[in-house]
């Protein structure tokens, strides 16, 4: 499995996942030209994409889908619970929609959606597996629940939200009080320290690589997210770059390309 974040944050989210026979995008909240350029950097033809998987209906996750999917006739997959709202938001893509309410397969990629607490109509994360090579994507999550942990605990690689620093959030002058309350609530976004606590659980369950995702442009920084989480983990005797590798998904730049190889192909 080859996996790479193309963009992450309130300005747009998109992640590319590839197996031997499948190529998919998780969300697409970026302009068409941006996604085409990022795919070109990966050596991926846009018309080779098998599907776009939607986590939820917020605009930073879907606003690029209509142009991309229609341009290359790409099937779109989303949970049944958001079918009606997607018909309204992406009216010209009705013929491309496929709705699910349980696990499904795309070629040799097994996809397990699971519910994530976030203030959308319905939000899912994805556990993606090619045989025993497993990666999970969990962004836009207000609380790291036991349901989420059980779904992703055996993942070699996890994309996990580290959205905000509480002090920066509360002092940011352009956010009104209701928005600060929404972000920091149990169905909003995950703070750096709560992300760190989630990573602690995941490391003990076998995860060795975490990509900090959806880092806020206004109430966080990449360096602060990394340092806060690293310091917490070290206090729990989990040493970054020894027991777990921490990486960052950027706002406007393709991230690191990761490869997870099934045991049968090693």
Number of helices: 9
General form? globular
On the 0 to 100 scale, the average pLDDT is: 97
Q: State the CATH topology.
A: Metallo-beta-lactamase, Chain A
**How many structural domains in the coordinates?**
1
Please name the CATH architecture.
4-Layer Sandwich
Biggest sheet: strands side by side, in what order? Answer: 6-5-4-3-2-1-14
- DSSP strand content: 15-25%
Furnish the topology, listing elements before pairings:
Layout: E1 2-7, E2 14-18, E3 23-26, H1 32-41, E4 51-53, H2 59-62, H3 65-72, E5 76-79, H4 83-89, E6 97-100, E7 104-106, E8 109-115, E9 124-130, E10 133-138, H5 146-152, E11 157-161, H6 166-171, H7 177-184, H8 192-204, E12 209-213, H9 222-235, E13 245-248, E14 257-259
Structural description of this entry:
It is a single chain. This protein has 266 residues and is an alpha/beta fold. The protein has nine helices and 14 strands. The radius of gyration is 17 Å and the shape is globular. The strands form two sheets. A seven-stranded mixed beta sheet has the order 6-5-4-3-2-1-14, with helices on one face. A seven-stranded mixed beta sheet has the order 7-8-9-10-11-12-13. It has helices at 32-41, 59-62, 65-72, 83-89, 146-152, 166-171, 177-184, 192-204, 222-235, and strands at 2-7, 14-18, 23-26, 51-53, 76-79, 97-100, 104-106, 109-115, 124-130, 133-138, 157-161, 209-213, 245-248, 257-259. The model has no long low-confidence stretch (mean pLDDT 97). It has one domain: Metallo-beta-lactamase, Chain A, CATH 3.60.15.
